[in-house]
Amino acid sequence: MNYTIALLKGDGIGPEIVESAVEVLRAVGKKFNHEFEFKSYLIGGIAIDKVGEPLPKETVDGCLSADSVLLGAVGGPKWDNLGGNVRPEKALLGIRSAMGLFTNLRPAKLYPALKDECPLKAEIVENGFDIMIVRELTGGIYFGERGYRDGKYGEEAFDTEAYSRMEIERIARVAFETARKRNKKLTSIDKANVLETSRLWRKIVKEIAKDYPDVEVSDMLVDNAAMQLVKNPAQFDVIVTSNMFGDILSDEASQITGSIGMLPSASLGDTKRGLYEPIHGSAPDIAGQNKANPIATILSCAMMLLYSFDLKKESDAILNAVDKTLEQGFRTFDLARTTTPLSTTEMTEKIIENL
Ligand code: IPM
Ligand code: MG
Predict the structure, then answer these.
(1) CA–CA gap between residue 257 and residue 349 (Å, rounded)
(2) 3-class state of residue 217 by DSSP
(3) pLDDT tens track for 47-61
(4) Active-site residue 251, yes or no?
(5) Are 97 and 91 in contact (CB under 8 A)?
(6) 142 a catalytic residue
(7) Residue with the nearest Cα to atom 9 of ligand 1?
(8) Which of 77, 154, 211, 234 has a CA between 20 and 30 Å from the CA of residue 280?
(9) Catalytic: which of 49, 116, 211, 223?
(10) Is the distance from CB of 241 to CB of 197 less than 8 angstroms?
(11) What 3-state class would DSSP assign to 216?
């Protein structure tokens, strides 16, 4: 088969890790007889520098006409002092929204080979953990009304969290379907003791639950969830939560897998066209040094093959190659405590050898 993939390399380590992932996809194409065509578009800080805006129309059009999109990372200190509307991060929110990607799947699992990198006590992660975070991605406080106004004490800024029934229903359904394909256990995370949006969220999750009697569902407050994630991560199977809580909890979950450099993500909407990206940022401190861990981006490609192209065998081949490479003891800088670290390109080569 032929597939067109839009590449949004972005800033910092973005170009390096996307190049690695492209190499892996090329190798998969060769092995399984698929043709992947790659087209690069500007996004983030580099787009600001080159054309004066973080998300040029050409980029949006390119993504909407591709079969799928692979993104590196955006942002960096160079663009940190720009206003909210022209920041590189605005492009990320813009492309998620333009493509209608309301679901963000963020799997966080502990690789047996990385058990020693997990900062939790050995007895807590004895049996490992394998969590799928389903984060709502195009609503909530990220997209609510915001601005400045004259407050009681002078200058005041505000951001608003709003969720509609439609938005909650559709993400809840994705979460229940996801749980159904896994261990049938869903935890819905909110702040219903304080927030009205959370109370609506809870009510709707309970309604949708009636259609999924085979899935065991429970609610958890977000502060407790943050605690439970480090106390007993194995209790979670699928988590569903709002945009902001999902952002925060997925970083926490990544840290207990050993490194944020390991976590992929898939952003999906109503069509097969998804956007795949590592959950980590642009890591400007190590950009251009061939030091970044490419695994999160490579695993994001495995998610693309599965969710956008229905290529399960090919997706599994990547997962197995990553497993094997870690089992063989190869580590990048973020994970190499006791071994000599491999560079980004060396790690990529090892994974390709193991395909
Ligand atoms: C993420 C990132 C983004 C988010 C930022 C860069 C806007 O942290 O994908 O988790 O908050 O969604
Ligand atoms: Mg984040």
Answers:
(1) 23
(2) strand
(3) 999 999 999 999 999
(4) yes
(5) no
(6) yes
(7) 279
(8) 234
(9) 223
(10) no
(11) strand
